[in-house]
UniProtKB/TrEMBL annotation, chain B:
InterPro entries: AAA+_ATPase, ABC_carbohydrate_import_ATPase, ABC_transporter-like_ATP-bd, ABC_transporter-like_CS, P-loop_NTPase. SUPFAM superfamilies: P-loop containing nucleoside triphosphate hydrolases. Pfam families: ABC_tran. Keywords: ATP-binding, Cell membrane, Membrane, Nucleotide-binding, Repeat, Sugar transport, Translocase, Transport. This is Sugar ABC transporter ATP-binding protein.
TrEMBL record, chains C, D:
The chain crosses the membrane at residues 44-65, 72-92, 126-151, 193-212, 237-260, 292-312. This is ABC transporter permease. It is a multi-pass membrane protein. Residues 10-27 have a biased composition (Low complexity). Keywords: Cell inner membrane, Cell membrane, Membrane, Transmembrane, Transmembrane helix, Transport.
Length: 339, 501, 345, 345
């Protein structure tokens, strides 16, 4: 079934009672928050003479890397000077980044920083310029929030996974394995909690939940190790739902299943989609991934920041158009997909 | 042709020139005694021969061929083995492995345990030593470790053995066995260089005597042609002789009450020992190594508990739980194992000297300055004739062994203890300095300190003790007083006269 | 003079007289009297601890005690284990290698980046060469330039992690046709477990029975003494760093094949896991003691705990708390044994 | 009793002759003759290195050499610096504390969790008590139970990280009305920088000018000998662990106030950063040498590099490579100085 969910009104999702376990295939899909934006290239020359500071989340992970490359490309197109600073997922480092941007007199900021509660201090330390917050709120100084609707993205995954199980298996499953990264804090909670909410809206309260912490940012190796043990504790289980905070942990889970010859037993709901990770898309039960399009973030960030720097007023939110992508729809979004 | 010949060897440590051109020969089948004051450069010289240090100039000829080692492996390949002054063994490894260290017997590339044990047993048997082969050497006493070091040098082919004060930690019996061994090696054609501060040993085993003074050879003659006085003169440039520093007992000593007393005490390795430490007197505790002497000394310092009997301080029974307890009660202790128990390596001489006195030196403010330590150091540098740069910041490791010993003795002099327990106080100290240390001990007693000298060297006892207890296998077998404290009486009581020393 | 305690001089200080006599002391125990207890190897306490752990989990999870799970545990510790074997060799000689974690990442990256272009065999060769190169670099810096091993390997840790990230751009890169490590050729044990067992045996043999191994212990016990008996200290240590590099290469290949991909963060933290197992297994930081057997026990103690807690579905934060406590407990247990025995030795 | 030469054996010269005898037989020169070069402190090479670094960045970034940026650097190293001061004290005595990073997280958590309920003052008290408690626990385990410091603090590292995550549920928790650390009371320097400077000065004084400091060096040099000169080794080390706990508390408060929140991962990796600075600054792992001054230089070398490279807009992966290389280079530079001087000492 094609379960792309972009629009649709309806009631608030996830508020349904988490009771028995009965399937509610009729449950409404999650509602995309208002403010979904369009990706567009920066106008050449629009950024001439402007300097942009970009605080990165953590460049040792793929997602921010994709964002970075996209931003770099767009800054080049616009002709703006870009200075980057990797906070390595550490608020204290992000604070240092902000100070350095102030020292260097940047005229606009993109802040991708994990600790929303640290934002006041980071804002205070940085220069008084327009700030685009990426994926994580940076109050009080954020001019505009740009990026993922983390909870909504999670709900999309959970809802679609739930829908699959409701239709195929009457919401029967052996375990619900959630591969998380506690270290990411709020984002982890929004994304993974969102998945549960979405799932529960269809199949009721999650049963046999197994939360596995896969290390800072979500790493393959711990996921593999923990999944191996978890599968052992689920002997004979044929329907194991596996949802993960990123693709790396899903790759780890698949590696664990592969060794035990149980790839068939895993039903995968994935955050983010990178067309190169074929292991996931060729797995027998890849139910789908929610796309974040990090490789296009620059198209939201750079043009809009330049506008703001030039004094234009921006909306409070510019959201990425999330899509729940499946085998059937993947080519639409990623023509280069070749798994 | 001599096995080994050096000419013009020079060596400096920084600005300090230690060796000024040494011409030296060691013949196969002959024993050369290498003598000299503490810091004269003896160890430095043999370390150069063994490839441990690199000489700055000069040359070494082995069997007539010029060789410049600069590496231990090279010297070993030429058959040269050094038994160094400071014990250098692999503490966590067993006795057997330490004996074959660096020359493991192997079969098919695999270390043969059986062969290791056989060779170790054989080497130790040559020294007639009975040391359990499977014990880690870190659990041996110092003398046993020294024997293991010697046994190592015997294992394998050696053509030249360099002994650097091998008997400093050995008992008389063990030393006697070593001498027999050396005689045997000499017969077998090994060239032997023997460093010692005990001149009697020279006459017992050496063919030639060679004296280093101020980094130059000041005497090099066959032993038959020299006297002790010649050697001493060549070493220190003046006459010094062994003597007794003790006056006939004075009034003072008789009236004084003992401050610290062991009463019918039994503990590790000793039983039923009574021993008083009386202000103004020096009590000698003489016993061969292993006789329990050092355990008694350690008990006095709170390092060991008592199984029976008691320790009285000012007449009242006390329990000293730790050395800190003992120090608080005014007791000081110079341990026998310099490297393991006393030296703070890497720290300056001043710090090493001041360590137990820090609290006092710091005064009420609790602030400890370098200047205070330096002053403390200067107080003793000259009094004990420490031969060093006279720089309080000099690291203690760069002092010669004997001079380190003086600094460590000064540590307790500075501390001003009421009771001073000195174990092997002159281990590794040269003839001249020995007299200085004896004098210092007597001066200390004269100032009212109660001194206990626990030693396996009768010379220490004879030189300074008002009264001496002799221990054999954990028991006090004799008590000698005043004029009875003589070499003969001591050795006789300790189990047979030894002509060695 | 006889043994009589009678002093014949006027100096006798009365009651404080040095007294001789008393019952003859017989303090020295003969060698034969050492009880069998004292012959127990040092790691015995840890083995007991491990057994207790196993009993606990067997009682608390129905899935724990079966062959499948045993293979899981073995596989889970195998990659850390290969590194820990190398770390044991280094640590008995008093050295460290903290670069192993990023080494594993670097080797993995080389493999996944090159395999599509060079083919599997050549890519493996280059990847192994990469691991060895790290070892050579560490060995060179520590032994030729004389830089402290901790700083050196902290430095190369950062360098190779940085290179891995810079080249791989933080992406997870999959590798195809490189799944030899998931085979179970023997006893239903997957290849990594078998490789780990083989590596452990080889290291145990090297360390106990070869001259090189004994020399490494001697260097750790007292490097000066080792030098003075003609052991080529630097050469030996250099070799050990290269061996550690080989271990990285092996662990990197195993890991890549097992996961089927490699990323910029691959191998993060493995150095600490390896060193923890080695130290827990009784190899001292000062060098000169310990061995591979202890390291295996150390690995198992940690591996069994993590496996058992996961089977019991314990939250990962509490797993951390439990692991920390257990680490301390295991060593405390060992100390207890030591102090119980100290009276007997 | 006097020095008069009464004797019963053949006596040649009187004792005075010995003491006063002849000109001093010393081949050694007086202190004055040492060339000034040899008096250069050990950290000199590192200072030179730091200056080169500063010159390099000053030439390559127009923003580097100004007071604002200097305060940035100082602030950036201040939290690691407070921990590194404690680590220096421990390391000169031959001990480690790897739990400082999770200690900072734990202290932060206590503060942010309790402040809304208890009020700021009380919450601060409890948080400080939390840090001290970690120190006490480490001190107890190491000195009373005799567990190796590495294992102990690896254990408490895991325990307190786990507790922080479990209690805080991985969330970032904000704190209100706790912003004293962002004030700039003096020279435009923010509080953390001032606190760090104060802590460094206090530690430098303690280590150089108090008996306690001296004793810690002695313990590191030879703990057995230290015991025999009456130093209470265990008590001193215990105190040092508690001091390290206090440093965690201080660093935790600073960090929380600076960031305005705390989370489960707060402080991760600080232990390694602190130890790196200490070792880079010349304190040896074996103990007995080093000091706070060197540690400050070590902190600055790393801090300036990271600041300068960011100003030069260098990618973070390459920054890692550069940092690793620099670490090695700095020590290599120091080795060079040592070998140049070795002839002079
Ligand atoms: N590593 C070193 N660095 C600086 N000076 C040193 C070093 N080793 C020895 N010295 C100095 O060289 C001189 C000779 O020392 P050496 O150890 O050779 O004396 P020695 O004759 O063996 O004395 P002893 O009888 O006390 O053992 C001494 O002044 C000593 O301080
Ligand atoms: N910790 C130990 N474990 C096992 N054996 C030991 C231990 N300490 C000493 N020994 C053995 O006990 C014997 C006696 O050694 P001990 O140290 O008691 O001699 P000692 O009387 O103190 O000699 P010295 O006067 O030279 O110090 C030696 O054979 C030694 O190897
Ligand atoms: Mg010497
Ligand atoms: Mg003894």
């Amino acid at each position: 079934a094609t379960l792309a969910a972009c629009g649709g009104g309806g009631e608030e999702p996830g508020t349904t009672t988490a009771g028995g376990g009965g399937a509610r295939t009729s449950a409404p899909p999650p509602v995309a928050p208002a403010g979904v934006a369009k990706f567009e290239d920066a106008a050449p020359g629009s950024g001439d003479g402007l300097t942009i500071g970009f605080t990165q989340l953590n460049l040792s992970v793929g997602f921010p890397q994709d964002v970075q490359r996209s931003v770099e490309e767009q800054a080049r197109k616009a002709g703006a000077k870009l200075i980057t600073c990797d906070s390595k997922a550490d608020a204290a480092v992000a604070l240092d980044c902000a100070k350095q941007f102030k020292t260097q007199g940047v005229k606009g900021l993109i802040t991708f920083q994990a600790d929303a509660n640290a934002a006041p201090r980071i804002c205070e330390a940085g220069p008084p310029v327009p700030v685009l917050a990426v994926d994580i709120e940076q109050k009080p100084c954020q001019t505009t929030f740009v990026g993922a609707a983390n909870e909504y993205a999670g709900q999309l995954v959970g809802y679609n996974v739930g829908l699959y199980f409701a239709q195929q298996n009457d919401c029967e499953y052996d375990a619900f394995v959630s591969l998380e990264s506690k270290a990411v804090g709020q984002v982890n909670e929004l994304r993974m909690g969102g998945i549960r909410k979405g799932f529960e809206s269809v199949c009721g309260a999650v049963r046999n939940l197994r939360t596995l912490d896969t290390g800072p940012g979500g790493l393959s190796e711990p996921a593999q190790r923990l999944m191996t043990d978890t599968l052992t504790a689920l002997p004979g289980a044929k329907h194991v739902i596996v949802v993960g905070i990123n693709e790396d942990v899903i790759i780890g889970a698949l590696a664990a299943a592969r060794v035990q010859n149980r790839t068939d037993d895993l039903y995968l709901g994935v955050q983010n989609l990178n067309p190169k990770n074929c292991v996931i898309y060729t797995a027998p039960h890849w139910l789908g991934s929610v796309a974040y399009f990090p490789e296009k973030y620059g198209q939201l960030l750079v043009p809009n920041l330049i506008k703001a720097m030039k004094g234009e007023k921006l909306p409070a939110e510019l959201l990425v158009p999330h899509e729940f992508v499946t085998k059937e729809t993947v080519k639409q979004h990623y023509p280069a997909y070749a798994c | 042709m001599p096995f080994l010949k050096t000419s013009g060897i020079t060596k400096s440590f920084g600005p300090v020139k230690v060796l000024h051109g040494i011409d030296f020969t060691a013949e196969a089948g002959s024993v050369v005694a290498l003598l000299g004051e503490n810091g004269a450069g003896k160890s430095t010289f043999v370390k150069i021969l063994a490839g441990d240090h690199d000489a700055d100039g000069g040359e070494i000829l082995i069997g007539g061929r010029r060789s410049r080692f600069g590496s231990v492996a090279g010297a070993r390949a030429a058959g040269i083995r050094l038994i160094s002054q400071e014990i250098a063994d692999a503490g966590t490894m067993t006795v057997a492995e330490n004996v074959v260290l660096g020359a493991w017997p192997r079969r098919l590339g695999v270390v043969s345990r059986k062969e290791t044990h056989r060779r170790a047993a054989e080497s130790l048997a040559r020294l007639r030593a009975e040391i359990p082969l499977n014990r880690p050497v870190s659990r041996l006493r110092l003398g046993e470790r020294q024997i293991v070091e010697i046994a190592r040098a015997l294992a394998g082919e050696s053509r030249c053995l360099l002994f650097d004060e091998p008997t400093a930690a050995l008992s008389d019996v063990e030393a006697g066995r070593l001498f027999e061994l050396i005689a045997g090696l000499r017969e077998a054609g090994v060239a032997i260089v023997y460093i010692t501060h005990r001149l009697d040993e020279v006459f017992r085993i050496a063919d030639r005597a060679c004296v280093l003074r101020d980094g130059r050879i000041s005497l090099d003659r066959p032993v038959a042609e020299v006297t002790t006085a010649d050697l001493v003169e060549a070493m220190v440039g003046r006459a010094v002789a062994a003597r007794r520093f003790v006056e006939p007992a004075g009034e003072h000593a008789q009236r004084a009450e003992a401050v610290l007393t062991l009463h019918e005490a039994s503990g590790d390795n000793f039983a039923g020992v009574s021993l008083p430490a009386v202000p103004g007197t020096v009590v000698g505790l003489y016993g061969k190594i292993g006789s329990g002497v050092s355990e008694v000394a350690e008990t006095l310092f709170g390092m060991r508990g008592l199984a029976a009997g008691e320790l009285r301080l000012d007449g009242r029974a006390v329990r000293l739980r730790t050395p800190a307890d003992a120090i608080r009660h005014g007791i000081g202790f110079l341990p026998p194992d310099r490297q393991g128990q006393a030296v703070l390596p890497g720290r300056s001489v001043a710090e090493n000297l001041a360590a137990p006195s820090w609290r006092r030196l710091a005064g009420r403010g609790g602030l400890m300055t370098r200047a205070r330590e330096s002053r403390a150091y200067r107080r003793w540098h000259d009094a004990l004739s420490v031969r060093s740069r006279d720089d309080p910041d000099q690291r203690i490791g760069t002092l010669s062994g004997g001079n380190q010993q003086k600094v460590l003795l000064a540590r307790w002099l500075e501390c001003g203890s009421r009771v001073l327990v000195l174990a092997e106080p002159t281990r590794g100290v040269d003839v001249g300095a020995r007299q200085e240390i004896y004098q210092a001990i007597r001066r200390l007693a004269a100032d009212g300190t109660a001194v206990v000298v626990a030693s396996s060297d009768y010379e220490d006892i004879v030189a300074v003790a008002d009264q001496a207890a002799v221990m054999v296998r954990g028991r006090v077998v004799a008590v000698l007083d005043g004029a009875d404290v003589t070499i003969d009486r001591l050795t006789e009581s300790a189990g047979g006269a030894l002509s060695v020393r | 003079m006889s043994d009589s305690p009678v002093s014949d001089s006027a100096v006798t200080p009365g009651p404080h007289a040095v007294a001789a006599g008393g019952p003859p002391a017989t303090p020295e125990p003969s060698a034969g009297r050492l009880p069998a207890l004292a012959k127990i190897p040092n790691s015995a306490a840890l083995v007991v601890f491990l057994i207790l752990e196993i009993v606990f989990f067997a009682a608390n999870s129905p899935y724990f005690l079966n062959w499948d799970n045993a293979t899981n545990i073995l596989t889970a510790i195998s990659i850390t284990g290969v590194l820990a074997a190398g770390a044991t060799l280094l640590l008995v000689s008093g050295q460290f290698d903290l670069s192993v974690g990023s080494g594993v990442g670097f080797v993995g990256l080389l493999l996944v980046e090159l395999q599509p272009h060079l083919g599997t065999a050549q890519a493996v060769l280059v990847a192994v060469a990469g691991g060895v190169a790290i070892g050579l670099l560490n060995g060179f810096l520590v032994n030729v330039l004389g830089i402290n091993a901790l700083i050196t390997t902290l430095g190369t840790l950062a360098i190779f992690r940085g290179l891995t990230l810079a080249v791989g751009e933080g992406q997870n890169i999959a590798v195809n046709g490189f799944d030899w490590a998931i085979a179970r050729p023997f006893l239903d044990l997957p290849v990594p477990a078998l490789v780990f067992v083989a590596v452990a045996v080889v290291f145990a043999l090297i360390m106990s029975f070869t001259v090189y191994g004994r020399e490494m212990y001697a260097i750790g016990a007292n490097s000066n003494a080792a030098r003075l008996v003609g052991i080529r200290v630097k050469r030996n240590l250099f070799l050990a760093f290269v061996i550690s590099g080989l271990c990285m290469a092996l662990a990197g290949l195993l890991n890549t094949s097992l996961i089927g991909s490699s990323s910029g963060t691959t191998g993060t933290g493995l150095e600490l896991a390896a060193v923890t197992a080695v130290i827990l297994g009784g190899t001292s930081l000062q060098g000169g003691t310990g061995g591979v057997f202890g390291t295996i026990i150390g690995l198992l103690i940690v591996g069994v705990l993590s496996n058992g807690l996961t089977l019991m579905n314990v939250d990962s934060s509490w797993q951390q708390v439990a692991t920390g406590s257990l680490l301390i407990l295991a060593v405390a247990f060992d100390r207890l044994r030591a102090s119980l025995l100290s009276g007997l030795r």
